[in-house]
């Protein structure tokens, strides 16, 4: 529950702090005094978008902070899921700078707006006039019915059961449905891929066969190009090799003979010093090396022959490689081999896709069966609650001044959706003899308010939310009905902290704490303030609510009587 609320520099609020009672808190004040402004600030605290136009002073930041006692609620897993430290006291804080930058904190840890919303929706349920209008929406009605039937845990919140370790019926169905939709999407993607792959399969198979038959080797292009140069120039190469051998070994003044003589002559000088011996050794090494070179040249010369057949064979092989490279727009055999590997994968993928499609289809049918089974359980639980829901709601609205009301839940079975296979519509009529119609057509503003309050009352014991905020849910009612509405709120407050903004004295008198919002004029501007009323101040405020600015003695007496009730 909310134990402390601070608002600073927001709209008409310069600085405000309140410590709500754990039960029923009433907020009253004149129209425009700032009651709804407080709700706007709480909305920011729970993750609503910020607007710098709402800053009280444009050169200062706005700070809204709420301290909640969450010791009685199993929210440890909620915090763990968001990687936040859990404490029995939870502090939510929003800061909006003059530049428009917004920051959010949970227990002083910076978080995103999405995280503060997830935490906040487990702490407070704000009911505004917009929610009353939502009652006409069939999906909202279905959510209400699910909460009543125990299919989920809280209004608009199907995650709490998971965190509390109790997977709800709706959540179980929703998980199966999401899994089915994912498998359905995967199946469509795979079948689309197969259709496309089959269109390209023959062409890819042709290209693959062409490359496979070529039996390419990664380095063969360079080797073949070098061999072709040698084959095409064989005669010139052989002539030059012959001349080189002759120059080294066979000519009158050949190099090897000259070196042999040189080695002999230097050897005769070895007795005159070690340096001559070193020179002889080096010269002898040169002679040995040249003899080896000459031998290799002779071998190369013998091996070099014009070979037209081999030349043609190499040319044809290179032409094949060049043709394939041009066809696939690459420069090397390594690139051609990579393309071959890719084509092998594409051709093989058709078979793999067949297997994947079969497996996905099998899994999809299994999950579809589970979806239908869980949808049937969910639908059965919903339909089983129709009669008690209708009767309990009728009893409450009859007590709130609509004794001739009729409430009927219209049900149709539909194809599976994220919420099941049920389409429901709450039909209503307030007058005897009138045929029940959709709420939008049949209910007035005041009837909507009473219907919504009755539904909230019915759901109070079935939700996990500790604090419920009502923003003028008493619209369109008065007199004895207002007294009953106040008592209904009082009963709800025995299990939930209630904060109610009201304009009716009959409801205000039921509060355990009464806060008064008023405008105060300073030298330069008007500001909103709030104060907690003591007993005498409550009597005065109730008397003003009953009779206006100048209440009579009777008004004061009526105020005292309301408080005594």
Automatic annotation (TrEMBL):
Membrane-spanning parts: none
PANTHER family: DNA REPAIR PROTEIN RECN
Protein's recorded name: DNA repair protein RecN
This protein's GO CC annotations: bacterial nucleoid
An individual GO BP term: DNA repair
Family label: Belongs to the RecN family.
Domain RecF/RecN/SMC N-terminal: from-to ranges: 5-521
InterPro entries per the UniProt record, alphabetical: DNA_recomb/repair_RecN, P-loop_NTPase, RecF/RecN/SMC_N
The protein's role, per its UniProt record: May be involved in recombinational repair of damaged DNA.
Keyword Nucleotide-binding: yes
NCBIfam families: recN
Coiled-coil stretches: 173-251, 350-377
GO molecular function list: ATP binding
Assigned keywords, A-Z: ATP-binding, Coiled coil, DNA damage, DNA repair, Nucleotide-binding
Superkingdom to which the source organism belongs: Bacteria
